[in-house]
Structure formats: C-alpha cells, structure tokens
Fold:
Amino acid sequence: MTSNRVLIVEENSMVPLDRRVWYEATTLRDAGWQVVVICPGYRDAHVGPGTLKSDDQPEDLDGVTVYRYPLTFAEHGIASYLGEYFSAFVSIARLSWRVWRKGHFDIIHICNPPDIFFPIGLFYRFLGAKFVFDHHDLFSESVAWRYRGLSGRLLYIVARVAEYLTLRSANAVIVTNESYRRIALERTDVSEEKVIVVRNGPKADEFVPLDPVPDLKRGFPYLACFVGLMGEEDGIANLVEIIRHTVCELKRQDILFVLIGDGPERETALDRIQTLGLERFVEMPGLILDDNVLRKYMSTADVFLSPEPWTPMNAKSTFIKIGEYMIMGKPTVAFDLEESRYTAKNAAVLVRPGNIPEFSQAVSDLLDDPERRNRMGKYGQQRARDYLAWEHQSKHLLQVYRMALGQVD
Structure:
C-alpha cells in the first residue's frame, strides 16, 4: 500500500456520474492513494434521485474528496464554448492551488475534453508533481466537426496545438482504445511505452442487473432505453427522429422510450418531442445519480439505444454506455462506428450511420424477436464480464501510475 496523493481534474462531467473517472478514483483509493477530484456541478440541472453540490466546500464521497465548481455548460456557438472553458480554467486553477496548499500531491491527473489544461499540468510538474493526461475524447476532431468556415479552421489549428502540447507535456498518457493510441503516437513523437490503453467498462461486481420493474413501463409492452450525456455529438437529435419514425411511420405505439441523462441538447429534444406530439411515448427523467434506480430502469429495458452519429471523433471513440448496456444482458441498436463495432461485436445490431429508418426498423425487429434479444444479451453480458469490465482495466491504470512515478515493475 502507498500513501501517495493524486488530484484528478475533469471539466465536461462529474463524479460519480462520470463512471470512468469515478472508477479511476476508487481504484486508486483502494490501492492506498489519497484521492482528490475537482469537477463541475451543474447549475439548473435536470437531476433525478440524488443531489449535486456546486460550491467550493469539499465533500467526502466514499473516501474520495470532491471539490465541485459551478459551471454552465455551453449550448451553441463559439462564444458560448469559450466562456465555458475560460470559466472552467479559472475555477480549476484556483481549486487546484487550494488543494496543493493543503497538502502537495504526487500526480495531477487531467481528463479531457477540452485540451486546454496543460499549463496547469506543467505548472505542477515545475513544482515537483507528475502529470498524467487521460485522453477521453478527440477534442480537435470535435472542433472540426462542430465549426465551419475560417473561424472553425482557426479553432481546429488551436485545438491541434493544444492537443500536441498536452500529449508532449504529460509524463504518461492514458487512452481509451487502440485508435486513440495510434493517433497519439502519430501526432507526436512520444515513446510507445508512455501511452497506455485503459478501456471504458463497467464494474462487473457492482453494475449488475436487478429484477425488472414492470411499473416503469407505464403499461407499454416494451421499453427502449438511452442512458448518457445529451450533447450534439451524442445523437440526441437523431434519437428524437428515430422515435418519430418508429411511432409515426412504423406505427409502433407499444414502445415507451426512456431517455436518461442531461446535457445541452436536452431542452431542444424535449421541445421537439412536444412539437411532434410524442410526449405519451417518451419519458425523460433527467440525471439519475442513484445507481440502484438507474439499474432498475436498465434492467427493465428490452433494448438499448446508442444513436451517436458518425463524426471524426465518434468513429474512433469508445462509448462507456455500450459496455454498460451489455452487462445488463440486453441488446443494443447503434450506428456502425469503428469502435462501437469492436466493443459490442454480436451484442448489437449496427446500421448505416445516419440512416434513421434503418435504425427504427432494427429496434422494431429486435422487439419482435425475443429469442434473438436473449441470445444477443447473453453474448454481450459474457463479453463485458470477461473482457470489457473495469476489473480487467484497473491493472493498466495502476501501471500508468507506476510508470509516471518512475517505478519499474
């Protein structure tokens, strides 16, 4: 056991909602580390069971010290995102210094997106800490997809420079899959041993199915479920159109669609659902922080939805929701993206990216074939337990930390 101290920083989500970061924090805690996390708390969030704090007073969360700072997440437009990132940078710099003054940390572990916090990592490297970069998303690809024109090209250049400086300045780099690892090695001259894959995956001994709760279906024969962030690249607009096509074109009025989560596109999606007159077929409970409640919904679902569109980032990204869907023992319908295909294999029906009718038909066909759903669900659950589960990934996280500290196995 060790008495080292680590500060984990993230901007685009929060613990314990961000299951990857929470698993990292608790793995380090269990290995004897003193763990501090800085993350945002939503203002005006649509929060289900549980509460979120968003002030400077630390809380003890199962042995992990958590500082939350108020942050209004950007919705649309360059100015909105710049405002979010500036506010986050100032808050993280201030709180990290507060943590440092209370007791130096050995490692600062910074998660992206965005890739703008490398100056903070470098500052603490100068003071003697090690800097671990946790590469969650391809931020520069996201910028290129989201913005067009001259301003978009300039932002993309800035994002690539920030990505390069972040990768180069870190003592060790964590990536979520081999696609990200190749990108890190191709875009910088960092050594191969410096970049280690730690995949997204649920904890098989904690995130387990529960007995279905029929009342959650509200009298509908079937429940189709989405769980996750609700941003532009998460495919929420696609999801609304999938629901519309399923209900209106395929005449399926026997399905309740439950969309769990929050984000900048939630209100837009809710408005669109109301405009289309689909409220009877859709439930949007917001963020559900109580894992027991979340697992009740997921255990009651008949099929899961992963509507992320093809983007340069999504094509190379591993979505943690797919692993969670799989461990619940239910099949998924998703667009055919490279890493989604690798993660799910035979546990998902993959359709051509952007093809709304094909996606809707796949959902309908799965619901009409319980034997196929059962077969796919069992396969996915076994794959998640045997390969994707966090229990198999945690050893790679600890390897990263040993390497950052210069400890040789």
